[in-house]
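--- STAGE predict ---
source: upstream dedup step, 1 unique chain passed
mode: sequence only
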Amino acid sequence: MEKIKNSHNATIKYNTYKLSIFENRYGEAFDFLIFSIVSMTDVALCTVTLFSDDKSYVIATNDDSIEKIWPFDKQFDQISSDDYEIETAHEASALDVKFSTAFPITDSHNVIIGSLNIFDTKERILTPENKIYLDKSIQQLNRWVRIKEKEQRLTNQDHLFEFADDLIGIFSLDGKFIKINPAFEKTLGWESEEFMEANFIDFVFDEDKQETLNAMSTLNKGERIQNFTNRYLTKSNTIKWIEWTCSSDLDLNVAYTIGRDVTEYVQKEKLLRKSELKFRKVFENISGILSVLDLDGNFIEVNKAGLIASGFSEEEMSTSSLYDLIDPIRHNRIEFFLSEIKKQGYAAGEMEIIKKDGEQSTWYFMCSLDEDQNGNKQIFSNVIDITERKRIDEELRKAKEDAEEAYLAKSEFVANMSHEIRTPLNGIIGFTELALGTNLDDTQRQYLEIINQSGISLYSIINDILDFSKMEKNHMKLDIDKIDVEEVISEAFNIVSYSANKKGLEMLIDIDQTAPRYIWADGMRLKQIFVNLLSNALKFTEKGEIKLYVKVLDDLGDSRLKMRFGVRDTGIGIHIDKQQEIFNAFSQEDASITKRFGGTGLGLTISNKLLALSDSALELESEQGKGSNFFFDIDFDTEKEEFKMELDGIKSVLIVDDNDNNRMILRRMLEIKGIAVTEVNSGLQAVLTMMEKTKFDVIIMDYHMPVMDGIETIRKIKDLNKNAPFIVLYSSSDDETLQEACEELEVDNRLVKPIRMNLMYKVLSKLKNDSKIEEEAIEIEEKQSDVIKYGVTILVAEDNPVNMFLTKSYLKELIPNCNIIEASNGEEAVEQFKKQSLDLILMDIRMPQLNGIDATLLIRSLEKDIEIPIIALTAGSLPGEKEKCVQAGMNDFLAKPLLKLTLATMLKKWIGKE
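--- STAGE serialize ---
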């Protein structure tokens, strides 16, 4: 409603405004005429109305009570000015009207613009005299309207003259100004009086005066001048370009002129010409090939470089098109190019062109759609001759292929050689391992241990070289899965335990209590890095300790953590100048190191390449003579899980260990579970502590301590009638010596160092239940006999007699009642499968006649209801070999040289339960 009200008010204001305009323009002249008509014709009411939009406005009346604004009757649009009388434009409701009529008022174009209206209170007919008078009155009204229109036009023209931005003026044909508008002063800066006192030509720039005089001569002949441009000096001593249109009146000896300031346009035009000239110079002199074509591919212009490159002359190119430079079999590509540039406005690519001498070249083109000065579409093309580059690229591609073939040949050679080396190694390591399990004198045992360790060292070197070869070829990929962090670390320690025990070093695992139990990672590769770092630390550490630690650095949200893994040792350390060099392949700190400590120098390089797959890298902190700290940081998806062993019955524990770090790690493990810890660093302090009659639920005793070892300390404590349960910490090399002493002292619980948190909790949780921990759960070496109690039939497919004999020997020791079927190649393996009912197949990969992978495929195709486990036996040296085994249908993978422990684990995994 408010909007309607506002709109209505605005309409009233507008109508009132229009009325006031009409009254001001015509009211005074019309008023006298109205009263004359009333007097002469004796009518009651006479009015003059003018029409505008949809309203009629009463401009003059002899009765001021009449409404001044009335709705406009549309019928007047159809009335010709020839009609004498029309209907009145409004009503006279205040009168008792008996007679009314109206007469049209017209403008200079004879268009009705209003009416003269008369009303009377008595019936009457206009007399001839009345009509003559009214006719003369109408004629007078029309004259006044025309006069007012002319006055209005003159006023408008004066406004135009005064306020126009163009220069409008009248000057005599002898060059004197008669009248000028203010735009002269505004544009040129001179005062109006200065223009009027001077001659027209005085303001013209000297260089243009003659041309201007010539134009004046043209005007003097009565001819018209259009778009004549000359320069004028301004009062500020600048130049203005004015474009004139003039006509002359020879009778009055004057000229009428209108001029426009085109200075900006002229300057832009100059800049454009300058730019075009510059472009032309660039176009002709640039070393690149430039050309302009029409939309049909015809050449409009080609620069000098293009003519030289193609061999054609300018005349020849002007009559040529793309179709003349390109082989007809490729003409469809031209059509596609032209279509594409019309559609997209841009196109780029390569084209094979034929030069004038018939030689073929490869050009790379970049084209865009453009317009010439007349607005015609054209194609601007920039071309580079890439013939030589293509030739070099082809040579490089060929060289790359040759290099890759050579590299592949080298990789296959290394893999094949390593396979051939591993085959006899399998026999050396396997049979020395079997021999060490028999009754030997000390000299025989020493010799066999040396042979066994030498074989293992050679095996390690071959593995390093193969891993490095795979990484160079980018065949290494990560297999991400959920893994137990402590389990992987423990397995890495198990691998290096022999060397650690031999040196008598303290081996520690230090896992941050905030670290998750599980992470998503490639467990095998992570373990390989740990083994490399631990082996490196063992190699350069003669005394002290080696610690593998795990820290949580940052919580990234959504169970994702940034974690640090590191190995810190107390070895010889590395000089700061050599700390970067050691990460290079085949490098060690100096040449003498290689001879003294051995190794390939590939361990750190391989670890770094593996870490690079996870966007990480090894870092080093080291001081010569004090030890080294190798570490790396990786972001992992994680899963926390508490160890669920109940330890409520254990309130206090005494830790007896001479190693500060080991005590700290043990304390942290126990305090997590709320157990009070007392720690001492020697057997003597332990005895003194126990003499104070302090009661402990458990005593954790290190076996290796100076002065008084763990067993001797236990004896002293038991002599004091202290019956607290003991847990003995020891190294696996002490097993035989320790076992007898523990049986004598009735110590049933032993843990192999480095201590694993979950095994420590497992031992503690069972102590209060008086149950002994199964030895295979807490010791590194499991009993390797009687792995499987029931009879099984195993097919061994192996072409090497030594490896066949070794595998059979292992199987007979692990499964005494095992039925072993032999096959010397893949074909025999398939035949035996058809004849025998098998529980497991051990399948060598590389065999004559039919290899292990093809044999597996055949066996899988013959199976009906039950899938027999097939385990691959291979060096695993060729890239992708393990993946091929899995794709062929094999269930698992055993790497050569075959070890008794790994075979036992595999047998348990696949046929260990009835």
